[in-house]
Design a protein that fits this description.
This protein has about 525 residues and is an alpha/beta fold. It has 23 helices and 7 strands.
């Protein structure tokens, strides 16, 4: 059931009619040849290399936006099923059902299920590795665990933090030397397999230079994303998660649900946030795989509450009969086992048989939480919820740019729109481009230097500009001499005419004045404080 629900949530509104910038990179890179992808990975995005190769095979069948996102939908559905399997193995089937449904109806899981990036696949691999970890601790083989975790780390290297979470689980379980030895060998194998990726990606660290140091607000935002963005759902899930912590430590050598779920949910985000205080590396999506721990912890709390309620109900039903037997002298055969105090048999913490009614009640409560979060899930299907919408930008350009026109992208990353939607820019001359993206082994192509760009623009009387409005408006400083040259020439030598704005990206026509300078200032405005 969780797998089916997650599939339905993932397919709901999957075709948004446009890709945002990261999805567009996935799309245009995966459509290159394998040698071209390999060439690119030596320059940038090595951390996503395996994902691009997998996506290359998918888009070879049908290179569309829906096909781009289908692997994420399938991975999210698999993750929901794996969360349910973990809850079943660590607690009981009804708790697994609750945990799996909570995951499937989480807005955070639904968001990345519809994202053409690797994060949903990483979450599936990490959750599968956790299930294999539990099986190995209970006597299974360690090599499937190490192999799957190593493969998952090649989808995104920060998945290696899951090893620390599993180490904490072993410590809470007070595992024996044999278990530690098996886990250590598997962890070492996964770490060694990741070393080439680490070596290459260190040289590409400039790609994450835009990240900021996480704060307490970052941690609170992640907590709310894990437990529920609406107030009612958040506080109920938080209370149940705290109740689930009562079973954090079990018998020696035994993994508990809380002992597995809490480290998975907490250790990777906390370690990455702490490391980011020195060198910012944290983004919520990098630790999406930690989300699987939250519904397990909530389900553990719900199971504990349901068990306590069932024991109290059973005690209340039996209490009159026990009192009657005690008043009659307690001689009835089988009234109380010898040596057992009155009421002990019905008030102990032993798990009672699972009740279908309790399981159904839990499902109904999960559905109620989904009803509270439905506006969030529905709003997330709007392209406006993403950072930008290159599909809308390309449609605006197609209506305005005619074959033979000239275009400049400010900054160069907005060339992503033309690479992803080439039909909208067919026959249009890219003024700054020297070498195409695929041929140059870059994401956006190589541009002319500042002097050559000035010479090219000097020969034009009109040019279309696809630009970040903040850069053209002086609210954000252009980076690098080429970008500064673009903005300076446009402000000094051209005057703007018509424009269309799509989510912070403008498609604007600039025309050279017939005589003299009219309107625009002599120099571009300086970026102000934001």
């Amino acid at each position: 059931m969780p797998t089916l629900v997650m599939t339905a949530v993932g397919l709901w509104g999957l075709d948004r009619g446009g890709m945002w910038r990261d999805e567009a990179v996935s799309h245009q890179v995966a459509r290159r040849t394998v040698p071209q992808i390999w060439h690119l990975l030596h320059e940038v995005d090595a951390v996503h290399g395996l994902y691009y190769l997998l996506l290359h095979a998918v888009l070879a069948v049908h290179p569309g936006e829906v096909a781009l996102r289908l692997p994420s939908v399938g991975a999210a559905a698999l993750t929901a099923g794996l969360v349910a399997a973990l809850g079943t193995r660590l607690l009981r089937p009804r708790a697994g059902l609750w945990a799996g449904l909570l995951y499937a109806l989480s807005p955070m899981a639904g968001h990345y299920a519809q994202e053409g990036r690797s994060y949903a696949l990483v979450a599936a691999g990490a959750t599968g590795a956790t299930l294999l970890f539990v099986r190995a601790v209970r006597g299974g083989s360690w090599w499937p665990y190490g192999a799957l975790l190593g493969l998952t780390c090649w989808l995104h290297e920060f998945a290696v933090l899951l090893l620390l979470a599993h180490a904490v689980s072993l410590a809470l379980a007070r595992a024996g030397a044999r278990v530690w030895r098996g886990w250590g060998c598997a962890a070492a194998a996964a770490g060694l397999a990741l070393l080439p990726m680490v070596w290459v990606s260190r040289g590409q660290s400039a790609q994450v230079a835009w990240l900021r140091t996480p704060t307490a607000e970052t941690a609170e935002r992640l907590l709310r994303a894990f437990l529920g963005p609406t107030q009612e759902v958040f506080w109920v899930c938080l209370a149940l998660a705290v109740a689930g912590l009562a079973g954090l430590v079990g018998r020696r050598g035994e993994l508990t649900c809380a002992g597995v779920a809490l480290p998975v949910a907490v250790v990777p985000p906390v370690v990455l946030m702490l490391a980011s205080q020195a060198s910012p590396l944290y983004v919520d999506r990098y630790v999406l795989y930690a989300l699987s721990g939250a519904p397990l912890l909530v389900a553990a709390g719900a199971e504990r509450v349901a068990g306590a309620a069932a024991r109290l109900r059973t005690a209340a039903h039996r209490l009159p009969a026990l009192l009657a037997r005690l008043r009659s002298g307690g001689g009835a055969p089988g009234a109380l086992p010898e040596g057992r105090r009155p009421g002990e048999a019905v008030l102990t913490g032993r798990p009672l048989p699972s009740s279908p009614r309790a399981a159904l009640a839990g499902v109904l409560l999960v559905c109620l939480s989904a009803l509270h979060q439905f506006p969030v899930l529905r709003a997330d299907r709007d392209p406006g919820r993403r950072a930008d919408d290159l599909g809308a930008v390309s449609r605006a350009a197609a209506r305005r740019l005619a074959p033979g026109e000239s275009v400049v992208f400010v900054p160069a990353v907005l060339r992503n729109a033309a690479l992803t939607y080439p039909g909208a820019f067919r026959g249009v001359r890219d003024v700054a481009l020297v070498e195409g993206a695929a041929e140059s082994g870059t994401l956006y192509g190589r541009e002319a230097d500042a002097a050559e760009l000035r010479r090219r623009l000097a020969r034009l009387d009109r040019v279309w500009v696809v630009a970040d409005r903040r850069v053209l408006g002086g609210r954000s400083a252009p980076r690098g001499p080429v970008e500064r040259a673009k903005v300076t020439v446009l402000w000094q030598q051209f005057t703007r005419r018509e424009e269309a704005v799509r989510r912070g990206v403008t498609v604007r026509l600039y025309v050279r004045p017939v005589s003299g300078r009219t309107g625009p200032p002599a120099a571009p405005p300086r970026p102000g404080r934001r």
